[in-house]
């Protein structure tokens, strides 16, 4: 048994925050699953690095190349094939855990983050195109994403709500999830196999807050975990609400908190800081592969997500007294997150277009 198995036994499912075609074909990914990885998340930045920084996709690009072929369409062909293969390799986990884990997440195009109508249209299209039960469609938890989340849940589509930084946004998307399930109940549709996770970002909060605080401040490195612990408390409060209890009586599955952005950015901090301190029931932690390796080597499995909650509240109060406006910080992080994924997607499409042009030129010669 590895520490990842112990982490899952403590209630926190370890997911891999990365995907590469060579890992799927070489057996590397299956080894991670044997070691205890029970899910995968992807995003435009992950695919940008996988495709731009390797030759994994050269054969597929050669096969996809055709005069006038749109580079964006080629990306979706490549990404969907990877998601399908990862989902197939995780199907045993999905079945063995009663559909609790074994999921792969696929993100909507970043251009849709602030477009409710486009997100609402695209979600069922990608859901049908991928054609696997053990997938999540990732929808950003922006104000415009909230109605799309409700519509998608009401349609019976599994949703990973991403780019959550603030407690207010976390609460808003959770009620959207509940409204979607309530609509299904009203229509006489089942809700016992509709799944959702709420991806609450962690390390980026510390990076942003630490930049505001003076050098040597004892509050540095405190904001992210405190913010996440209060999100978990809000999760417990919503779970105890009568509206949720009525849905639970119909077999509804909870929308689990997923701790995202858990790779430590500051080398002065522990490389397992955002794993060790957020362990507890009904959680997911999606980790980049170096963080998984670090946790397997020296992580500590102990229930911590609901430990020292009063201290977490005091730390956020002290941050406010120190001049840190956490609401402003999290708003900027959401905007920056959308922009970063959009930039990665644009860069990825540009790289694919160049490669397709080179393949076309060789073919013409």
CATH class call: Alpha Beta
Question: How many E-type strands?
Answer: 8
> Low-confidence stretches at least 5 residues in length (pLDDT < 50)?
none
- Write down the overall geometry: globular
Q: Strand portion, in percent?
A: 5-15%
What is the number of helical segments per DSSP (H or I, 4+ residues)?
A: 17
**What average pLDDT do the residues reach?**
94
Radius of gyration: 20 Å
CATH topology: TIM Barrel
Structural class given helices, strands, pairing?
alpha/beta
Q: Major beta sheet, specifics?
A: 8 strands, parallel
Number of domains: 1
What report would you give on this structure?
- The chain has 365 residues and is α/β, with parallel strands linked by helices.
- The protein has one domain: Aldolase class I (TIM Barrel, Alpha-Beta Barrel), CATH 3.20.20.70.
- Helices cover 57% and strands 11% of the residues.
- It has 17 helices and 8 strands.
- The chain has helices at residues 3-9, 21-26, 28-35, 44-52, 58-64, 71-89, 91-96, 116-130, 145-154, 167-186, 203-212, 223-239, 242-248, 273-276, 289-298, 309-321, 326-364, and strands at 12-16, 39-40, 103-107, 135-140, 159-164, 196-201, 256-260, 283-287.
- It has an 8-stranded parallel sheet with strand order 1-8-7-6-5-4-3-2.
- Helix 8 (116-130) packs parallel to helix 9 and helix 10 packs parallel to helix 12 (223-239).
- The longest helix is centred in the C-terminal third of the chain and has 39 residues, at 326-364.
- The chain is globular and about 65 Å long.
- The N and C termini lie far apart (56 Å).
